Amino acid sequence: MFSRIPKLKIKRDFFKGKAIIIAGARQTGKTTLAEEIIDEFELKTKYFNCDNPDERSLLSNKNLEFLKNIVGNAKIVFIDEGQKVPTIGQTLKLLVDHYGKTKQILVTGSSGFNLLYKTEETLTGRKIVYFLYPLSLEELHPDKDLLGAIKTMEQRLIFGGYPEIASLSSAEEKTNRLKQLASSYLYQDILEFQQVKNSSVILNLLKALAFQIGSEVSYVELGNLIGADKRTAERYVDLLEKNFIIFKLGPYFTNKRKEISKMKKIYFWDLGIRNTVINNLNFLENRNDVGLLWENFAVSERLKFQSYHRIYANNYFFRTYGGSEVDLVEEREGKLFGFEFKWSEKKREKAPAPWAKYPNSRYQLITPQKISGFIL
Hints:
This protein is of the alpha/beta class.
């Protein structure tokens, strides 16, 4: 139902002698996108569903001759949920090196850590990676209709952008499906691959993070909330990030060494998941966190925009001890681009004085009325 932005880029990369990997959280539409692309080529395809143990075993610890036999004369080899194959890196290397540009290897994976880690060394120079996120505002409004985007903004802030959720018509349907998504199904890869046996710990951590979006997060405090030490809390946050549920922003410093030790801000890739985790799917008129929702939405949408349009930037936030802050800092092209997010513009905002002192710095206030060219 939705046209995904990476689709044309992925098609252009077919038959160039590299494995194509589509990574992203569960239910973001990776398999659907892959199947749409394959259908348009109208070529014989060998499909492996690695959720199925029997098909998974066909690709694990096998030599080239065996792989050639099972691939046969197919021109496209599609491996779905590739992270579940223990030797996926070696398998893909054998296939890519042998077939080159004569066959296309296409792989999807919902656990970015496992799939990308397993292929990092063996597929160096042999893969092209695309990330697929919950639907971006551009994908929901491909006509770039600002008024239409503003009218549906409340839906995005409450129910998020998972394709299935966006396709449902009623709030009740969206709520029920989000509750299923936000159960252990969404992060079952963490439970399955990362030896996290207690799903309640992950859920408690997600709740703690959901209440702190837009704030600097202390791993010590998080550990206390979930009954764990700082190191365990940090590890779990890292796993949630690698499985595309949350992402971190570090503080901007001219001294880059300081970035490592300072606290991070954490956001959710999808607000529907965030709101479901804290059991608050109320409409905006009955909420007191609208400003935080808008900030999370704007930051996550901007990072999707960067990814899909290949805008290469280092992303940070800026905050001084005196309380001056900039929500998002993009360091690119030798310049600093600062963005502040406000749900409503009551007066013209000026750049904070400490920020304005940086050479080559820019500053822009982003409200829902000012998203054209920024995320739309």
